[in-house]
Amino acid sequence: MGHRIADIAKALGAEAFGDTTLVVEGAAEPASAKPGDLALAMSPAYGEALARGAAKAAVVWSGADWQALGLEAAIVVPRARLAMARLTSYLDDQKFGGAGIHPTALVAPDAVIGDDVGIGPFVVIGAGAKIGEGSRIGAHVSIAPGVEIGAGSVILDGVRLRRKVRLGARAILHPNVVIGADGFSFVTELESNVERVRRELGEAEVVAPQDATWHRIHSLGGVEIGDDVEIGANSTVDAGTIRPTRIGSGTKIDNLVQVGHNVIIGRDCLVSAHSAIAGSAVLGDRVVLGGKSGVADNITVGDDVVLTGATIALSNVPARRIMMGYPAVPIATHIEIYKAMRRLPRFLKDAAAGTKLFQKADKSD
After folding, report:
1. Where are the alpha helices (DSSP H) in the chain?
2. Domain locations in the chain?
3. CATH class of this structure's domain 3-91
4. What is the pTM of this model?
5. Positions marked active-site
6. Are 241 and 261 within 8 A, CB to CB?
């Protein structure tokens, strides 16, 4: 089935022009668009590409002369990425299966399964677990006893939910997410070199310990996750030691992210791929971590902080700062450092040349 331009515009909250009864099958990039496609040309940079394609209709930028671009219909959007979010949501026909329990699933007799829940093949649901109405559980998911999953959640294939995990409503967990595994927390009988070096900030002498056995500190606190949280494939959130690890409502976590034990992440945060948040760190609301960024243990990152890609925060970051580099410094400071580093080879060359001149002058005297 196709989609009328008028209906798409309504879904986007945008204005449509031309033949709004025109029907398209889906979206495409401008240069490869076919007559039945809706071309996505949401900035002037894509105007030329429209001519190489065959689209009759397109989503275009505000102020575009859509008729001059050879279109029969156009949807004008002022904010391209927001339009992309709404459009992809409108066109997404991905299904997560219907309601019902697959015959290969193992569901504990006292598990509470809400109305309209779908449970896929080879799922294991432990005693006393609660699955909210309208949720979908993919294949090979394991849900430990007592776990609670909020209404309308989507738990995709291979996810592992360990003990004392609570998910809010409308959670989306992508394949192979692990929530509630034990934190990486170990201690030796006597003070270790790590403890000594940290306490004395590198001044301590490193010695061979009498007993190097690492004793595991068990994680008893579980994980609590708010509403509308999404966690990407192969990401992990460790259980708290005594209290829960917590992730606030609206937070979105990318693939391959590690959230350590006892961490607290606020509301509406964005954590990009390969980021790591060490144990007992606290992130405020609306914090953004760029790809491969890191937060050291036991520090606080304030509300509305942005750590750019590959930035490592080793100490507390006040609210509303944009930080960059390793160790993290305000972005303006990092740019100055970078400029200075680029000038350093020339400076050293000039300094060496100046030294030679002084040496020659001394000999001539």
Report:
1. 5-12, 47-52, 80-91, 193-199, 331-364
2. 3-91, 104-160, 330-364
3. alpha beta
4. 0.90
5. 261
6. yes
